[in-house]
Amino acid sequence: MVPHLITALTNPINELEQHILDAMPAIERWFRLEWMEHTPPFYCGIDIRNSGYKLAPVDTNLFPGGWNNLTEEMLPLAVQAAQAVIEKTCPDAKNLLIIPRNHGHNSFYLSNLKQLERIFSQVGLTVRIGSIDPSLKQAKTVRLPSSESITLEPAMREGRRLVLPQFDPCTILLNNDLLAGAPGILEELPEQHLLPPLHAGASVRHRVHHYRAYEEVAKRFSKLLGMDPWLIHPLFEVCHGLRHDEDSTEPHHADSDAQILDCLQGHADSLLSKIRKKYKEYGVHERPFVIIKADCGFSGTGIVRIHDAKDLGQALTDLSHNSKGQAMPAKTLSELLPREIVLQEGIYTNEQINDAVAEPVVYTMDRFVVGGFYRVHSAQGPDENLAAPGAAYIPLAFDHAGTLPQSGARPGASSPNRFYMYGVIARLSMLAASYELESADPMFEGDL
Amino acid sequence: MVPHLITALTNPINELEQHILDAMPAIERWFRLEWMEHTPPFYCGIDIRNSGYKLAPVDTNLFPGGWNNLTEEMLPLAVQAAQAVIEKTCPDAKNLLIIPRNHGHNSFYLSNLKQLERIFSQVGLTVRIGSIDPSLKQAKTVRLPSSESITLEPAMREGRRLVLPQFDPCTILLNNDLLAGAPGILEELPEQHLLPPLHAGASVRHRVHHYRAYEEVAKRFSKLLGMDPWLIHPLFEVCHGLRHDEDSTEPHHADSDAQILDCLQGHADSLLSKIRKKYKEYGVHERPFVIIKADCGFSGTGIVRIHDAKDLGQALTDLSHNSKGQAMPAKTLSELLPREIVLQEGIYTNEQINDAVAEPVVYTMDRFVVGGFYRVHSAQGPDENLAAPGAAYIPLAFDHAGTLPQSGARPGASSPNRFYMYGVIARLSMLAASYELESADPMFEGDL
After folding, report:
1. How far apart are CA A214 and CA A432, in angstroms?
2. Where are the alpha helices (DSSP H) in A130-256?
3. What is the mean pLDDT of chain A?
4. What CA–CA distance (Å, rounded) separates B182 from B169?
5. Eight-class DSSP state of A132
6. Nearest to A359 by CA among A332, A323, A383
7. Which end of chain A has the lower number of beta carbons within 10 A, N or C?
8. Residue from A129, A80, A39 nearest A448 by CA
């Protein structure tokens, strides 16, 4: 149920990986039962890191924009999954409107849109791209490097529906993470299916809710397999209430920079010592590190990495300079930092492609793993963020020679599917996103 | 939603094919709505013939035995479909028992079993092969040409369940067409899912029920597309009651050979003249022919082909000789022939691979087209049955270069997916099988 793709890591399967492979029947059954209770996110892109001793997700994108990195060979799987999801949400659909992000329309992103258009066209839907960027006043056709072209049209409201000229969609697919908040044009669309829903938007999504949901998923999964959840779960801590609630009736009163530093240092110290303890337990000789992220409404660029709590001051000072190294207008940390900050255990990646550090990205649609690719960065180290300017994307190839280990097959006659394990971790993360979205759903009445 | 496979026919897309390609969005939506009302057969193998002017199914096998002919590349699609069907029928399944046919265990068939075992193992089920052949007294392991091995064990009853030692399956997959009738060992298994169900067995299945269901499906589909149903539907007639009902209280009284010949000749004449009229209408310059098959309980070997009603006597005499050309013990036609006989319009195939006549076979699982291959026969003509001794099977390759025609793509930048059309015809046939099985289901209370 997970395609057999050739991974960069060719080391022998380690103990953790073998454990997951051996438990495959139990794992698949567990997921089947989970999906009876929970609705998977429409689609996801999950960043995974494999450090050899630990295999864990580090980011779960609910508006994945790299569909162009899936090879032609993976498309039938994506189309089949798309068919299943359309059958479920709107079987009598004729039209699908895709809402792209408003900015960053480079040829990679436009090829991603083209790929989504292709996948849903093959399901038999008429697909058009409707932008909600207010600066797009009329339809615009762009030629892609593949020599195909793509047309972006300004989406408009017609009463309670979002439409294009002569095009009234039943389903609207958001490929825009709504980091700046959900615009009015998307509000109150009770007659159309907006997927993913507005409460999945980056401006309202809390990283900490996802991490807590993943912690729960990882614990239950690890219990099933009889293993330590740490092997698949990045530890985390949260620094709450750096500033007072803006909606509070109390007069606005920002914490001082010293208070903020104190809070962050305390949590960083605590987290680093937990990781150190685990490294000792497992005989890991690497240097623990911590990733500091905003809880909400921050993109990947505002991420700080520290190996020692005392580096925190410098790291935050770096944050207060812009990318050209120039000091920004004087701001206190409280002005600069988001209200809540998450500290997450950093995971080393020990995958490399052509000497560049690599991390697998797994793409899912509905409950299916439909493909993946590598994000590689030749200028970043194994403990650094690869989703930084200069990253490249390398499609994964199908491994035609290998089949999953078969009982009865002679040793060596079948090769284990390392990508299977990445698919398992990705699906755990997707399941956590499903829990997270159910909690965030204003309409949800289920039992969590 | 249909894999893009390279077909043998490289002629330009003809009018009928173009019509189907153009209507793809309407077709896919129509299927989605049909599958909301009807349950697809667990799996099917559908033989298709493309004569250029006509594209039609000629046989729908509900117990397909050629899964080994699907390439490694197609497996992920089959596994994903298997996942969907297991989720639907028995999500908490741990074990799957496959019941193979009792005879004809050559290496091709055993490789087919191995492939089914592989597909369902990848869904996460523990798969074992349980034979219902009474002559199999103990487990038997056979080495396959791939150097894998497969173990067949005698299935046994334990109260109301079919089991193997230390193996109690929730789902039982029949890969045995039960041509000799359902044995007692399969009766009354109320706690297990037996798929396909016993009423799909070859001994109780009526070809004419399938043909009538297909006629209905083809008419509705053709109305949707505004085309003549004949272009996708083989005409047929039925010769009823060649012998009196054995269950009748009347004394047994067989029709005379002359009466049987009369009945058959009358129907053959009528059918040939209908085909001739259609050939004239479409400017087809080929010679019409008719295929004569038993309605029920007959395998593919008992098939007679005639181009003229007056050849019928000779054809039936040929039938009364065995394959070595020796006369069989004197039997009257009424003893020799099944009670009801179907006459079906013959469809020329104009596909060839290496000068051998070829027909595509499309494999489905649940509502998904998961792959296909060609049945080729170098000694048979374009109007002959290719499922005869000497047939070979050629896997279809994925066409990585081609994508479905995209609006906005430059002419020539995308190639049409001829296999898509075969997938449409196959799904029409599968839908007809779904109608047929619903009618035959003693438990079914739906509205047909």
Report:
1. 5
2. 207-225
3. 85
4. 19
5. -
6. A383
7. C
8. A39
- Kindly determine whether residue B368 and residue A80, on different chains, have CB atoms separated by under 8 Å: yes
Cβ atoms A375, A358 nearer than 8 A: yes
- Total residue count of chain A as it appears in this document: 448
pLDDT digits (tens, 9 = 90+) for A16-33: 888 898 899 899 999 999
A413 touches chain B (CB under 8 A): yes
Task: Report the alpha-carbon distance of residue A230 to residue A210 in Å, rounded.
Answer: 16
Residue type, A167: F
3-state secondary structure of A304: strand
State pLDDT tens for residues B134-152. Answer: 999 999 999 999 889 999 9
Phi, psi for B421 (deg, rounded to 5): -65, -40
User: What pLDDT does B297 receive?
Assistant: 63
- Cβ of B32 and A398 within 8 Å? no
Amino acid at A232: I
Residue A268: C-alpha distances to residues A56, A206, A310, A365 (Å): 20, 20, 9, 36
Q: Do B413 and A147 touch (CB under 8 A)?
A: yes
- Answer yes or no: pTM beyond 0.95: no
Which of A86, A121, A124 is opposite residue B406, by nearest beta carbon? A121
Taking an 8 Å cut-off on Cβ atoms, the answer to whether A92 and B121 are in contact is: no
Structure token pair of residue B7: 């077909």
Asked if A42 and A195 touch (Cβ cutoff 8 Å), the reply is: yes
Residue A419 has pLDDT above 90, yes or no: no
Of B197, B210, B203, give the one whose Cα is nearest residue B178: B203
pLDDT of residue B407: 43
Higher pLDDT, A151 or B383: A151
Residue A322 has pLDDT above 70, yes or no: no
